[in-house]
Amino acid sequence: MKLFFNLKTSVKLIAAFVFMGIIIGAVGSYGVKNLGKSNEQLQFMFDERVVPISNLGDVETSYQRIRVSIRDMVFVAETTSKKQEFENVINTIKEEIDAELKAYETGSIMLDSEQAILNDLYPALEGYYSILDRAVAYAYANDQEGYLGIAPEFKVSGDTVEGIISDLISLNIDLAKKSNEDSNAQYYQAQTMTIIVILVAVLLSIAIGYGIAQMISRPLKKVVTLVGQVANGDLTHSTNIDTKDEVGVLATSMNAMVISLRKLMQDVMNTSQQVAASSEELTASAEHTSRATEEITNSIQGIALGAETSTASLEESSTGLEEVTLGIQNIAESSNSISEASSNATSQAKMGGEYVGKTTQQMHAINESVNESSEAIRSLGKRSQEIGEITKVITEIANQTNLLALNAAIEAARAGEHGKGFAVVADEVRKLAEQSQQSSQQISELINEIQVEMTRSNESINQVKSDVEEGLTIVGKTEESFEVILVSLDQVGMQIDDMAATAEQMSASAQEVSANVASSTSMSRDSSANSQTVAAATEEQLASMEEISSASNNLSEMAMNLQELVSKFKI
């Protein structure tokens, strides 16, 4: 079962529908085979029982015509030519009887008991024909008394022939009834087995269709849910799908993408916090230096009071500048870390975009597999329609057999009393044809039920197709979200570049201020006469510190913006 779960989705669907096609083909073949057996049974009954009974009925009818013709030849015909006409009719009837008996004997499989009765018929006919020849001679001689003298013997011989023919007809009727009973038993057995096989096939088809649909839709829904959560910025979830099919590969790729994004956002968040802390320290140092510079200015204004006070202030300013320089170095290091994190973020986001692209390709592949499965179901529907057409042909055969039975019943009615046995067989054939027609109708209904189940399977496939299309839509949204993330990361990179440039400017300004402070200290130590120069230097230092303070505020705002961007993601 694990091996089947790891198969590709298209292979799963094709295997399921091939199995369903085999089941439908087996059911159709079994039904066609049973219909063929029923048709063979009908053909056997017609060839081996209906046709022989028809031959015997014709013999019996011809025998009655001979009796009527010899009577008319003796008592009705007055001229020799008229008598000759009756004799010709009698000879023609005798030839017809011989032909019917020959067709009866050679046209069917003769049982031993049937052959024994037929062997008794030939001597009886010979005896009857012998007396018939004597009756013809009396007719030509116009000897009615002579004919009446042999009439009892003639009647006994004729009754013997008629009895033998009746025995043969009764035997064939009994055999036809037995064949009908066997056919009915075979029909009911085939009907029961066909219903059982069809029910089992329908249940298997439903179970397989439901299992395949769940096998595809359940993990796919998990992946779709994860994609929606990632699109909303929630990176705290993952999937536990471990299959090797397209959905499993898609889930593994999504998990890897979520882990990469989670690590990326954590690094960016940590770096932004460090930048914020460094910018706060820089702001504090700048304020401290500004205050020191103001004190230096005040000291310069009162430089006449003493160079020592100015020197102390300048030393304090030098200490503040050292702190500023250290802060600027920390900012530079943080800027480098942020730049590296930004580069990693951009790389991971691009990788995530590639994962989403692969996800889209996998979703399209699943969509194509579902379309191929839908086409396979439509093909199976066409095959079931072809089986229905075959059933219609068999129904037409049963209708034709019913018409033949009706014609046989009409001929039996024309034969009167002597055609009753033939009428019974014709009625049995008609019933068997009606049963075959009902069986064909039931098979047609069962095929219709199979087609209904195929329609339901097609609806399930359409539902899976809808889920795949919904997944494609969500994956598209996720791809758009990654594009937004890439744009945001580009903006962060630009801001980080600005921060680096600002840090370089701050470093240059700090060095310049440090040089100015050193010069001011030297000048203060050398002479108080240089107080104007020191005042100018301190003013430049104050302006530089204002620039540093402004730059540190900008850096703080950038760090806050970066934190706001990162806070949209839950890790």
TrEMBL record:
Listed Low complexity bias regions: 519-531
The species this protein was found in: Psychrobacillus psychrodurans
GO terms under biological process: chemotaxis; signal transduction
Keyword Zinc-finger: no
A GO cellular-component term linked to this record: plasma membrane
Subcellular location: Cell membrane
Name this polypeptide is given: Methyl-accepting chemotaxis protein
SUPFAM superfamilies with a match to the protein in the record: Methyl-accepting chemotaxis protein (MCP) signaling domain (SSF58104)
Function statement: Chemotactic-signal transducers respond to changes in the concentration of attractants and repellents in the environment, transduce a signal from the outside to the inside of the cell, and facilitate sensory adaptation through the variation of the level of methylation.
Transmembrane segments: 12-32, 193-213
Record lineage: Bacteria, Bacillati, Bacillota, Bacilli, Bacillales
Domain HAMP: 214-266
Family as reported in the entry's similarity comment: Belongs to the methyl-accepting chemotaxis (MCP) protein family.
